[in-house]
């Protein structure tokens, strides 16, 4: 039951190390188990609603992004679904990690932007794992 409440996984799917970490905090004094009304889906629904309330804004699901289109030093859209779809946008938000986002920015798009990403990546200290 706790496995499901804390991370949404069944007891068969819950990683033991993650559960040990969460349970060590769970049994500390004055700790409460809270969860959003409507479950974790309600958080996603609220984020989507916050985006879609603006004219011309939307969230696309199950859309594979092949490349972030960069023009004049800023992201202006994405090339998606094997190059079949070009989505132009005022703003592009990447939910991918910094390494994946860098791979999506073409080396020919904007040398200054790719250099900025590369400089940031060089400063990141790598670790073997994380929770």
User: Per DSSP, what share of the residues sits in E-state strands of 2 or more residues?
Assistant: 5-15%
Task: State the shape.
Answer: extended
Report the structural category. alpha+beta
Helix and strand string, N-terminal first? HHHEEEHH
Mean pLDDT: 80
CA radius of gyration: 20 Å
- Please report the number of helical segments: 5
Amount of helix: 25-40%
End-to-end Cα distance, whole Å, is 21 Å
Q: Could you describe the largest sheet, including whether it forms a barrel?
A: 3 strands, antiparallel
Major sheet: arrangement of strands? 1-2-3
Beta strand count? 3
Low-confidence stretches: none
Description of the molecule:
The protein has 131 residues and is an alpha+beta fold. It has helices at 2-7, 16-26, 41-52, 98-104, 111-123, and strands spanning 65-71, 74-80, 85-88. Strands 1-2-3 form a three-stranded antiparallel beta sheet, with helices on one face. A hairpin with a 4-residue loop joins strand 2 and strand 3. The protein is extended and about 55 Å long. The model has no long low-confidence stretch (mean pLDDT 80).
